[in-house]
């Protein structure tokens, strides 16, 4: 008889229960928590790279219909169509920078050069003269300009702005290169994803995946068309009122129109503010015009263009854009609506039919 085994254990053949090893449980649990923490920290460290990859993949999927259209209509090989699309993107970026940087540099230089004259003219204004008498505004500005630390602070600010510009250019170049690679290997990436699904479900998953890719491409194409229309309308109006920055402001309005929900408003306010600097009444007229155009775009142009692109309710669009913007900023707002469309397709074709069969 083994020590510790009673008569009942001998007659029934039962083995006495073993006490759990709490140290082993705690050690394994601690290792799991540590591994999860390390994984989260690794994701946080490479979050910028993950955002670049996500944006590039999104652009590759969105530009794929344009690449296929060039390949079919012009009988171009796929690599030539991809190269043409990338050259078009680079050309637009060059034109945008060329239209923005010189006027901005000229305005800043003119402001700094005429600052003393502007202060002198403001002193002749009764309201500003009374304000200056109470709070010594002119003396404070002149003292700040004459301060020895002003130059170093200004230089530090310019260095910070330069770093921001460099980071933006680096991010743009990285996304462009990744987009080029993703467009070249898009079919291979999709086939690899589909092969991860069991053969019995592969055809259904392929059908849903192809529809999601088609919807994302239609969404991007629709957004580009709406942005082009908004930029063209803005250019014609600003050119008609005689502004010297018609092309610059039209590009700003067109680019900001790509931002869901608030993009048109941001572009309208920016353009109206620039026009109002030279002529306040024209600025007011521009603001009224853009408010009217925003209503036309929201209720006439955009619904017609986006009718076949994204079949998502307006409530879901707004919610998705707000959530995406909160989580990932501008990138999240841009990706939120097609993501909501993809989830809608999955719910409609997979989840709801299975629930109805139960």
UniProtKB/TrEMBL annotation:
Keyword hit for Magnesium: no
Membrane topology: Multi-pass membrane protein
InterPro entries: AI-2E-like
Gene Ontology cellular component list: plasma membrane
Location of the protein in the cell: Cell membrane
Transmembrane spans: 21-40, 46-67, 79-101, 164-197, 218-241, 247-274, 281-301, 321-352
Pfam families: AI-2E_transport
Keyword field: Cell membrane, Membrane, Transmembrane, Transmembrane helix, Transport
Broad class of the protein's primary localization: membrane
Gene Ontology biological process: transmembrane transport
Family of this protein: Belongs to the autoinducer-2 exporter (AI-2E) (TC 2.A.86) family.
Protein name: Putative PurR-regulated permease PerM
